[in-house]
Amino acid sequence: MLVWFLPLFLVLLMVGLPVFFALLASPGLMLWLGGQERDLVLLYRNMYNGMDSFPLMAIPFFMLAGEMMNRGGITLRLVEFAQACVGHFRAGLAQVNILSSMLFAGLSGSAVADTSALGSMLIPAMEREGYTRKFAAAVTAASSVIGPIIPPSGIMIIYAYVMEESVAALFLAGIVPGVLVGLGLMVVTNLIARRSEEFPPLKPRIGWAGKGRASLKAFFPLMTPVIILGGILGGAFTPTEASAIAVAYAAIVSLFILREMTVKDLPDVLLRAAIASSVVLLLVGAAMSFKTVVALSHAPEALAAFILSLSENPLILLLLINLLLFIIGMFLDAGPAIIILGPILGPIFTDLGVDPVHFAIIMSVNLTVGLATPPMGLVLFVASSVSGERVETIAKAILPFLAVEVFVIGLITYVPAISLAVPTFFGFL
Amino acid sequence: QDTITLRATANSNENDEDYDGLVVFKNYVENASNGAIEVEMFIGTQLCSAPDECIQGVADGTIDIYISTSSGLANAFPYVQIFDLPYLMSDDRIAEEVLTSTGLTDDLRRRILSDSGDTVRLMTIGNTGGWRNFANTERRLAEPGDLAGLKIRTVVADLPQELVRALGASPTPIAWPELFTSLQTGVVEGSKNGITDIMGMKFPDAGLQYMTLDGHAYMGALWIMNNERFMGMDDDLKRVVVDGFSALQQATFASPKRKSIEAYEEFVSGGGDLYVPTPEQKQAFQDAAAPVYDWFAANVDGGEEMLQNFRDAIAQAEESVNARRSAEME
Amino acid sequence: MGGVVAIARALGAVNAALLAVGRWLGIAAIGAMVIAILVQVFWRYVLNDPLPWPEEAARFLMLWMTGLVAPTAFRRGGFVAIDMVQLALPRLIGGLLTLVLLGLSLLVLVTAARIGWAEVTGFSGRFATSSLYYPTAEGWEKMPRSWMMGSILVGMVLLSAVAAELILRQIAILGGRGDDLPEIPMAVDIAAGAE
Ligand code: NA
Ligand code: NA
Fold this sequence. Notes:
Strand content of chain B: 15-25%
Number of helices of chain A: 21
Helix content of chain B: 40-55%
Number of strands of chain B: 9
Largest sheet of chain A: none
Pfam family, one (chain A): DctM
Bound molecules: sodium ion
Keywords (chain A): Cell inner membrane, Cell membrane, Membrane, Transmembrane, Transmembrane helix, Transport
Transmembrane segments (chain A): 6-33, 54-74, 98-123, 135-162, 168-193, 242-258, 270-290, 302-324, 331-349, 361-386, 398-426
Number of helices of chain B: 13
Function (chain A): Part of the tripartite ATP-independent periplasmic (TRAP) transport system.
Low-confidence stretches of chain A: none
Number of domains of chain A: 1
Subcellular location (chain A): Cell inner membrane
Shape of chain A: globular
Mean pLDDT of chain A: 89
Number of strands of chain A: 0
Oligomer: heterotrimer
């Protein structure tokens, strides 16, 4: 009886109930119908306690830091820096878009923030230069998934939280995969531009003086990841505290160095971060209660047994799991998917000899790419609202980029060193 | 008669002594009740993740059985922190005698029942992880002075913090999942944990290479149960359950001893420095820790009385153990 | 239908006022969270004297921030959902489906608020927090856990009020009176998640 809450959940989600309510309503209704009203309190309590966590606090803080950087003109400086580096390439502004996403990823933990900050600046700019709107929106959406792969990362904070992994190790492990996704997107963009006549002409290379000026202006923003990772590795603060340091640093840079933000802007910046993080925290809480009922239904044991019955070869299982995750990523946000599936899938693969950090990266990157796939693609939604292009149209234009991202997921899956080399170098593994 | 299904949860994993205890309990109770009782185990944080939340679950019966450390119960029942009072019980044999053959557990059961409005019932007290020792990344701690200036991670509970402060170190609250990184990067320099937790979390890889076997606190495992659930059973089943908890207690006394052998070997073979303080040095630790007893008596409701009861129980246990020892040696 | 519009407008005005207060408190809370953690780092790393309270204080603030600000996100359309089915259906049926889904949301929220009340006033509300104190005439007292647990209860009550307002609005829209409703400022882009 209880196990019906899984299909019910999918149905409610598909007909348009917000994820937060679907996560609570489906198990809640099944408990109630099954005469287990007493257990409804377990749902509530796990929601509350799911949110009451210190490591999770990094999410509001990194959001706030990103919001401040954006308000403080830091985004613009990163874009100018990217322009100086790759602006003269074929499909230059598209390449700038991708590189900016990689740079922005070092400051922000969220693909959605990346899409909305860079998209609102670059999509109109690309249109003015003659790119189609759907291409501009697709490049923006596809590249913004790098945001939570290169540290900091909201998704990896959530993964570390539910799986009790080290946030620092996951952050370090995400660097190379994130850069790989970025490079892959740049290559695809180049290939598309070579085959099509519709792209704007090449722009002149920016001279060394221009490059120098752009680098100088981007210096303080680009120092953010150095401060975050340096502070963590140097023992000054924990990853959660690093997120608060990032806020302080962003405030100093925006208020006093770049002086594009004033104290009057603070309430609005704080509010935007508070609103966005309150939604995430509620989602995390709801996913934690959903997970409780998953456990009560003994679905994890059944699923684990089923997966192991398919094959005992970890390489084949990893392929199957990637397929499963990709499909789940279509319907579910990355955060709830990790909370619900991480504890079920993680132990299976750890037992088969896959390094926990490696598996964390496989799962995180796969579900992050899912943010750009319909029907439940947060990044697509935001790209659509920023550009005014329909979700379906962007979803079609994004396919070549998704293909390369899927290819990178394959690389990450079968070459563990891509994820593990950096954390190993710093002694975390 | 319907089968009674007991939902038991432990926030640890299947390598933990809590799990060993539960397996013994489940096996005993299901056999001895001839199937009238079924025990459903939820290991980890599937049903609840924080002690406060789990205790709440036991109080209202959404969870039937739960194991908590003394710090975990401290927010609800502060006096259980007697187990965090340092250097009172000298060794396993005394501790086990205190927990099996004195009135201490009954006393605590009465207090917890009354303070929870007859909802939470203490069933038994076993062990989880042996004894707490000081371990750190910097140097050998032979006497209390060696702790000076070290940042030692503790849970956010009063007593462990008071102890670390009394020994001249700085108690530093760090979330458990962040502890590995914090030790590695030097945010904190030490912790106070049992050996199996230290090895389970691979802390020596993070530089935790110095351990002093001061055994400052017995890691008591308090097993609680929803009282209504227990009282609702007939006497035959009640007897099965209390006997089951007694078997569980014995299992959790034994399991850490067995597990810690390997863990200590692994610690030493990994280059760890394991130091056993001399009796004089141990005395010095005890003297330095003295302010903690005063703090407990003054700041915890009913603390003075509880401390006295604990001391009496220990004295009684020492007496009976010594008597048996002499008999055994004759 | 005129009555529904009137109640929707009245409830909307009450919600707008309450949520405005919630937003200001939420702004203060997230700002104070940052300060608490900076204090924690400064005291531990610079002064070498770690403090016990900032972590729990910051969690306290984070929970209140969530409870007070999430209702604004909900009211402004920030709870993401797949809306393709609702848009693909004929207007009336799609509108009715929206109404049913809002009703289900309200059911969830009211149930949560009822449980939340029992939790705050019940046994575990009396537990003490680990490191938070408040001043009384007799000195510092440990803060009870109920003060922290109240955050999500308040959140659920406010969310229920928002859901009720949205239901009334949807009924008015279905009754052809949508134009008589004051607009709610939308902010989808900011509330779309950690991802
Ligand atoms: Na990032
Ligand atoms: Na998706």
